[in-house]
Structures are given as C-alpha cells and as structure tokens.
Amino acid sequence: MGGTNWIDDAVQRTKEKYQVQRALEDKLIQEEGLKAKLGSRYCRELFAWFESVEVSFNSKFGSQVLAVSVVGTEGSRSVQVLARPIRAQERIADLNYQENTRCIGLSMGSGATSETQLIKLVLSADGVILAEIGAKYYTPEQLGQKIIDDLLA
Hints:
Shape: elongated
Distance between the termini: 79 Å
Structural class: alpha+beta
C-alpha cells in the first residue's frame, strides 16, 4: 500500500514539475509537423507555378525561352528552370526542397559560375509558410517571379 502512495505522489510531483516544459515540447512538435506539411505544399505550389509560367511565357514570347523540369517525390523535390532569352545567353536555376530541413536550396548561374543560397521556409503569424530571403518574405508566386526575373536580368 505504501508503494502505491509513493508512486502517486512521485507522479504528481513530476507532472507539476515538468507540465509547462512538456506542453512547450508538444506545441513545438505540432508546429514542426505543421511546418513540414505547409512546406511541402509551398513547394508543390511553387513548382506547379513554374510549370504553368513556362507554357504561358513561351507562347507570349513566341519561342522557347523558359524550360522547366520537376523531378522527385513529395518530400524530396527539385525543379530546374533554364532561361535562354538569346542563343548566346543561358542561365539556370536549380531549386531543391528537402522536407526534413524545411529549406529550399537555390543555385543560380550560367555555365561554370553558380551561386548557391539556402532559402528558409518560415511560418508567419497568420499560419502561412513564406520563403525568407534576407529581410523579405515571398509567397510561392512571388518567389517564382523573383527567380525568373533574376534569370532574365
């Protein structure tokens, strides 16, 4: 009988001592799960946007200027955007998304020169995932526009 009271008392003390910390840990785990889900959705929207813009841009330009290639599975996707506004100028953007990092790796360049940066996906106060570059935040469409503008600059 004395053992049961001790266990009850020990459980109660432990609950009281660690209740706040456990609640914070549970909240963090839920946030990370939400970030992963929303990050995957962000990249699906971004990559689909690139594919739709490829067709529209090329038909309006009158020739094949943009080429978009999406590869990979849901949690590990990449897209390559090739821009060739004139035959002598070619630039490539490679975007890679790894669900476990919640970041997009972006390599941009032409030929042997290429710059690589890591774009963090952050959860905004209103529960939307945005790409963060410096102090600026981008929706999927805004980020896609920025990348294509940079390729064509």
